[in-house]
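User: I'm curious whether this sequence folds into something compact or stays loose and floppy. Could you predict its structure so I can see for myself?
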Amino acid sequence: MFRFILVCIVVVGFLILSIPILLVEWVIGKCSRRAKDISSLRIVQAVFRCVLKITGSDIQIIGHENVPNDTAVLYIGNHRSFFDILLTYVMCPDLTGYVAKKEMEPIPLLSNWMKYLHCLFLDRKDIKAGMKTILTAIDKAKNGISICIFPEGTRNKNESELEMLPFHEGSFKIATKSGCPIIPIAITNSAEIFEAHFPKIKPAKVIVEYGKPIYPDQLSKEDKKRLGAYTQETILHMLKEHRENF
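Assistant: Here's the prediction. I'll summarize afterward.
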């Protein structure tokens, strides 16, 4: 329980104390949008690293060299834990916006930082609004900002992380319409940090593997039509390999 309390103190403390930082970032943005974006990215990454360190978890990163450093990408990952966002965000080499649920947008300060970081809010109940969000994500990818989305639509609460929820195919339009590659991410055992024994936070062994880029234009016609399922199969293969270590 001590770790949980400490994480809450760090997160809430940062949000409150960052009010003047938000103002400074806004001023920087008036002079250079790129400088402000990178500054915001590094600040939040530092906070996330601090939180992950508090959990005491053994985090193994595999295949991060597969992430291109000269183009925006669409990160696609399985989703079992709130910590999946932290685990992957600290590894983003450049500007990356995450697609989050619409319910997070009204949260003060948190939503301010999310907007600074190019995050988008998806209304899962409104198809028209959801498509508008996807179109905005496509535009960001075309302008060099990577996008990360967990296409299961919500945290997978099945007993086994190998029993993934279906991937929403609409998410993959971000790659097909912008021309950016897809980076599949397999996150193994992240629920053991928190969700498996809520509300306690416990140290856990976690593996985050970045697969080789998937270029939709290079796939067969059949695989292009089922791009979501194709990517999910790629992630599932990585997860199966790592489950042998637990």
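Summary: The two ends are 24 Å apart (CA to CA). The first helix runs from residue 2 to 17.
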